[in-house]
């Protein structure tokens, strides 16, 4: 593919953005060793282009470099661009670029030709000698269309637009939009250097279908569809092995490294085992089961190619975290009106009913795996674009990773934020909002380059010119992608200070071992006193509410607080079980105390409520449920009158069994938990 790149050198800030981002000149221009790039500058003091010499005009337009494969000289030239000193006419610069492409590459050229205009569009376009400015744009667009030249405009606004003439901006936007109507062109507006790097993409991946066939609604109804990838992760470039063993004089040396493997017998290490005597084995328990290639081929699942509708589901039932892999887009077969209408009708009906479709997909014949996914309707807002579906792969049970976390509402009151802390957190989130209502969105995916890839290509360019080049520091433009905006942080320092002061932060002098290591040490006979703590760096911090986390007994004065402190300890995996058992002992002692006092009853209920919350939080519902059933046992409580009063108090506080809804590990259905305290047992 061939590209003509037109860079507008107009304002100091814009050029500084390019210079501050050296990766711009390499990453955006090099994707293939055959790519060729030409640079045309406008807004320069001097004039240097062929059209001026041939027909006159086209002043203040300079060809920095004719069409040529990208090399180090071009990179250096772009990074040292001068600042524009005069107003420039971007239409003149576009004509010069088109002329370069037409002269250098004839109609028979098979590559892609493209012009990219980068400008702030603040300078007025001069009136043509004949016709209007719109007529001039139409003529240029027609010429580009005939010669197969695509056109892209990147308009840099943001701070550069402050103080600009509004009428000039509107006129230039109107003229540039005409290109998108009359030719293969598009216009993009960016606000900062980060967006500029993402917007200038010379590598345009041609859309390739991954499936062409029928969406089977039923045996008698099928819709012809094409499926494309909508998003796909850009992989890190493959680094190949390189050999320097070839003679320097050998011009045809490939320097490739070929790797061969030899399999030797365990019994006779000098004997090489040929391929026909080797077989794959799979570990199954303690043994290895050999499976031949013929058996493996026979056991493979070989479904037929196709996409089948399995059914519909409420959109709310398919959570966002269920999505795996890339996103595909389903469209009706181009040119088929009936299929287009069928897709549109189905998509709009699903949208209206808030439904999604579950489909089974085999993209190609011979594919060994089956994808089950969800089709989400994509209703087009453009009359010229048909409706479609987005496809996301759903996981099977083997793909799901269950991590159970207790509900925040189940935490004790002392562990939940107060109004002041919640307000400070709300202000922090609002401060770092990437899409504030008064400003343009920040870090939009379509304009944000991958900083890892950008940094790699920058270093690759340095290594290509200097073998011993050191890794450069992170570019300032890339730093704005990976770190919070320093200007925003400095401006809202009071918000950060308020958030910090709302929580008690203490230096943590010791870093505790993980639970797994503690258990391993206990099994090995290790001592928590000797080995349980590791030195932590001085900057290590821990957020604590108080020092009462080291309580190891449940006292009589504050049993609930003691229990919460014990169960929150993480210096040993045994503290959860100890805390639960000690709280059960405390409750039993209060219920069985003689003579029976109201104060005991009230304290016992508070302790039982704390025990319930703790067991939910630590995923120990069985311990609570078994203990509650024991407490209901009349024989254990003795006096029936005491038991009846306690039973009624349980019902009034709703201290029933922990159901599966509250804790997934519970074996108690929700209806059984509700019925548990509905009927008071009678005295036998």
TrEMBL record:
Q: Where is it localised?
A: Nucleus
* Cellular component terms per the entry's GO annotation: Ku70:Ku80 complex
Q: Does the keyword Manganese apply?
A: no
Which segment of the chain is annotated as a signal peptide? 1-19
The protein's UniProt keywords, in alphabetical order, are: ATP-binding, DNA damage, DNA recombination, DNA repair, DNA-binding, Helicase, Hydrolase, Nucleotide-binding, Nucleus, Signal
Q: What superkingdom heads the lineage?
A: Eukaryota
Q: Name one GO molecular function term.
A: ATP binding
Question: GO:BP terms for this protein?
Answer: DNA recombination; double-strand break repair via nonhomologous end joining; telomere maintenance
Stretches for region Disordered: 512-534, 661-684
| Predominant subcellular localization, coarse grouping | nucleus
**What InterPro entries does the entry give?**
DNA_bd_Ku70/Ku80, Ku80, Ku_C_sf, Ku_N, Ku_PK_bind, SPOC-like_C_dom_sf, vWFA_dom_sf
Compositional bias of kind Basic and acidic residues: 671-684
Q: Where's the Ku domain? A: 270-411
Which family is annotated? Belongs to the ku80 family.
Please report the name of this protein according to its UniProt entry. Ku domain-containing protein
- Identify the species of origin: Linum tenue
């Amino acid at each position: 593919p061939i590209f003509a790149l037109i860079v507008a050198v107009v304002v100091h800030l814009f050029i500084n953005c390019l210079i501050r981002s050296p990766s711009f000149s390499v990453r955006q221009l090099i994707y293939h060793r055959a790519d060729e790039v030409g640079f045309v500058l406008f807004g320069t003091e001097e004039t240097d282009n062929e059209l001026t010499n041939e027909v006159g005009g086209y002043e203040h337009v300079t060809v920095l470099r004719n069409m040529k494969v990208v090399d180090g000289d071009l990179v250096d030239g772009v990074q040292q661009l001068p600042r524009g000193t005069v107003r420039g006419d971007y239409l003149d610069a576009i004509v010069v670029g088109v002329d370069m492409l037409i002269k250098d590459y004839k109609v028979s050229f098979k590559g892609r030709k493209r012009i990219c205009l980068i400008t702030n569009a603040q300078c007025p376009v001069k009136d043509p000698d004949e016709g209007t400015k719109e007529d001039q744009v139409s003529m240029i667009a027609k010429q580009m269309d005939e010669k197969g030249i695509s056109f892209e405009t990147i308009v840099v606004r943001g701070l550069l637009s402050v103080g600009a003439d509004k009428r000039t901006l509107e006129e230039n936007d109107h003229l540039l939009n005409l290109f998108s109507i009359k030719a293969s062109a598009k216009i993009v507006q960016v606000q900062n250097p980060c967006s500029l790097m993402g917007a200038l993409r010379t590598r345009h991946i041609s859309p390739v279908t991954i499936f062409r066939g029928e969406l089977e609604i039923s045996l008698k109804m099928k819709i012809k569809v094409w499926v494309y990838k909508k998003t796909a992760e850009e992989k890190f470039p493959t680094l190949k092995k390189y050999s320097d063993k070839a003679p320097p004089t050998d011009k045809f040396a490939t320097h490739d490294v070929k790797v061969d493997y030899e399999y030797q017998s365990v019994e006779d290490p000098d004997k090489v085992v040929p391929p026909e005597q080797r077989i794959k084995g799979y570990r199954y328990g303690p043994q290895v089961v050999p499976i031949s290639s013929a058996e493996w081929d026979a056991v493979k699942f070989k479904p037929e190619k196709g996409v089948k509708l399995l059914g519909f589901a409420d959109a709310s039932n398919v959570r966002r975290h269920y999505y795996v892999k890339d996103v595909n887009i389903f469209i009706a077969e181009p040119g088929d009106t009936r299929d287009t209408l069928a897709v549109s009708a189905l998509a709009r009906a699903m949208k209206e009913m808030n439904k999604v479709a579950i489909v089974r997909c085999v993209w190609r014949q011979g594919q060994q795996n089956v994808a089950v996914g969800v089709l989400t309707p994509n209703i087009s807002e453009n009359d010229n674009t048909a409706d479609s579906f987005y496809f996301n792969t759903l996981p099977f049970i083997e793909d799901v990773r269950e991590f159970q976390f207790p509900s925040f509402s189940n935490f004790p009151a002392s562990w939940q934020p107060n109004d002041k802390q919640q307000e400070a957190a709300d202000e922090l989130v609002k401060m770092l909002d990437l899409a504030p209502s008064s400003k343009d969105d920040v870090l939009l995916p379509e304009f944000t380059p991958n900083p890892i890839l950008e940094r790699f290509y920058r270093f690759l360019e340095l290594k290509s010119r200097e073998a011993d080049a050191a890794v450069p520091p992170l570019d300032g433009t890339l730093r704005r992608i990976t770190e919070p905006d320093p200007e925003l942080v400095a401006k809202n320092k009071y918000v950060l200070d308020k958030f910090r002061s709302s929580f008690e932060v203490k230096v943590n002098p010791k870093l505790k071992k993980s639970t797994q290591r503690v258990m391993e040490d206990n099994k090995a006979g290790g001592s928590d006193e000797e080995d349980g703590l590791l030195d932590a760096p001085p900057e290590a911090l821990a957020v604590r509410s108080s020092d009462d986390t080291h309580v190891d007994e449940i006292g009589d004065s504050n049993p609930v607080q003691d229990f919460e402190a014990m169960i929150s300890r993480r210096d040993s995996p045994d503290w959860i079980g100890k805390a639960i058992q000690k709280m059960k002992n405390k409750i039993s002692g209060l219920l069985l105390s003689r003579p029976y006092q109201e104060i005991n009853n009230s304290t016992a209920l508070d302790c039982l409520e704390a025990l319930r919350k703790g067991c939910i939080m630590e995923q120990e519902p069985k311990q609570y449920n078994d203990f509650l059933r024991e407490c209901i046992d009349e024989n254990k409580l003795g006096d029936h009158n005491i038991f009846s009063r306690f039973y009624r108090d349980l019902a009034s506080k709703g201290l029933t069994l922990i159901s599966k809804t509250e804790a997934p590990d519970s074996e108690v259905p929700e209806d059984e938990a509700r019925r548990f305290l509905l009927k008071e047992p009678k005295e036998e």
